[in-house]
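hiii so um. not sure if this is the right channel but i have a protein structure encoded as tokens and i wanna go backwards to a sequence. like what aa goes where. can anyone help
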């Protein structure tokens, strides 16, 4: 039996997907929105976390909290529901060690195949996400820079970003200067606009 935790912020979509997955033999499925996901992972210790990368409750999906080690040393395997048009989120999933990448616009049976492959410790990648992976590889911003810029895009001040990421004010300003330079932007607002246009945020 493969224990699956489905993480999705859209209640209707999550409920329908979970009910559909429960009809598959050999799957035991629980579901949760992102805000409850870390606690559910610790409680349930699933074999696979299948998580939608579009997050309502966080600026940046806390993917590392979904595949952290349990007391027995086991770690859930991570599969993400992704879009080729959001290479920034794909890059975060790669850095978080995701094994499976299912295209949200693809056929539903890909999700089941992906869960079974990832549960077996194998990689699963939808071919249709190839463009997104190429764009992710070309993206000039680091994970930390993306985190800073994501918070800035939500309207956070330098002080709020520093507090949220446990950085000094000067370090945040240095990150913003690097982001502006790397994106070829004129200022912070322009960097946000460019990054959103490229799908990095």
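sure thing!! here u go:
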């Amino acid at each position: 039996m493969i224990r699956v935790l489905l993480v999705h912020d859209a209640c209707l979509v999550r409920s329908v997907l979970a009910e559909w997955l429960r009809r598959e033999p050999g799957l035991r499925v629980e579901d949760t929105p992102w805000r409850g996901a870390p606690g559910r992972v610790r409680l349930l210790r699933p074999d696979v976390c299948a998580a939608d990368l579009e997050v309502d409750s966080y600026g940046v999906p806390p993917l590392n909290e979904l595949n952290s080690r349990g007391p027995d040393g086991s770690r859930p395997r991570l599969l993400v529901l992704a879009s080729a048009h959001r290479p920034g989120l794909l890059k975060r999933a790669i850095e978080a060690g995701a094994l499976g990448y299912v295209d949200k616009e693809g056929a539903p049976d890909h999700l089941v195949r992906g869960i079974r492959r990832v549960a077996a410790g194998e990689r699963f990648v939808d071919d249709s996400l190839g463009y997104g992976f190429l764009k992710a590889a070309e993206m000039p911003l680091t994970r930390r820079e993306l985190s800073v810029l994501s918070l800035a895009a939500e309207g956070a001040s330098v002080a709020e970003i520093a507090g949220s990421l446990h950085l000094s004010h000067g370090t945040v300003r240095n990150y913003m200067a690097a982001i502006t330079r790397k994106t070829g932007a004129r200022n912070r607002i322009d960097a946000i606009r460019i990054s959103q246009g490229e799908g990095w945020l």
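oh and The longest strand covers residues 2-7.
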